[in-house]
């Protein structure tokens, strides 16, 4: 990897879900044992950045203590519309993350794709949700993670105009430290520490790498 490469590793739910899952979401819920094993694997990776999506209560109940024990920090992308909902973080838990050195970013309001929204819905997801989280944290919220990994050129252009300083996606490839758009490796329940190490550190074959890069270019230009 290049010297300025960053490996973004993203988690969602850990342990037993405390809310009803969306269709297909169970793939991104992992056991506490797998979570700990992955953290132990990645903790010394060069250029590592950890993040959590969807603001599940496991972020605080399991994720935060495990990070602190290992001296790690992470970005937590919170759904403003789920604050205080069953199985989701409340304002005090979001503040707890922030007080412990974690970065709070926005994942929008309702966990819907941001691509192709009408102006009112786009404002709710990109502006209102961010404002609500800024009020909760008492500090600027300037980073975002695109729900379901979906984005296009129109969306990214608007997010730049709104002043987002960094935007995270679900494209499984390394990033550059200075890039505004940051792809991530999302941990799934069929991953292992070894498979993640092979994919992220050794990288895909040249043909697979070209395919991933092409998909990213298409998303940014469409």
TrEMBL record:
Against CDD domains, the record matches this protein to: CE4_NodB_like_5s_6s (cd10918)
Where found?
Answer: Secreted
| SUPFAM superfamilies reported in the protein's UniProt record | Glycoside hydrolase/deacetylase
Q: Which UniProt keywords apply?
A: Signal
Q: Where are the transmembrane segments?
A: none
Q: Which domain of life is it from?
A: Bacteria
Q: Which Pfam families does this UniProt record tie to the protein?
A: Polysacc_deac_1
Query: Domain NodB homology, which positions?
Result: 46-222
> What name goes with this protein?
NodB homology domain-containing protein
Origin organism is Actinoplanes campanulatus
């Amino acid at each position: 990897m290049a010297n300025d490469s960053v490996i973004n590793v993203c988690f969602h739910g850990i342990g037993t879900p405390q809310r009803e899952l969306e269709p297909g979401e169970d793939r991104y819920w992992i056991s506490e044992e797998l979570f700990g094993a992955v953290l132990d694997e990645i903790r010394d990776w060069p250029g590592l950045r950890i993040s959590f999506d969807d603001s599940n209560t496991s972020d605080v109940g399991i994720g935060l203590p495990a990070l602190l024990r290992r001296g790690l920090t992470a970005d937590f992308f919170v759904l403003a519309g789920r604050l205080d909902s069953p199985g989701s973080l409340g304002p005090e838990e979001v503040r707890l993350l922030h007080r412990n050195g974690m970065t709070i970013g926005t994942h929008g309001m309702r966990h819907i794709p941001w691509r192709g929204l009408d102006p009112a819905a786009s404002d709710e997801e990109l502006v209102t949700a961010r404002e609500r989280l800024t009020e909760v944290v008492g500090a600027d919220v300037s980073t975002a993670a695109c729900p379901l990994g979906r984005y296009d050129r129109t969306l990214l252009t608007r997010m730049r105009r709104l002043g987002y300083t960094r935007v995270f996606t679900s494209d499984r490839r390394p990033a550059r430290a200075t890039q505004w758009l940051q792809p991530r490796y999302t941990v799934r329940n069929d991953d292992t520490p070894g498979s993640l190490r092979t994919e992220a550190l050794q990288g895909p074959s040249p043909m697979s790498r070209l395919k991933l890069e092409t998909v990213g270019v298409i998303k940014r230009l469409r």
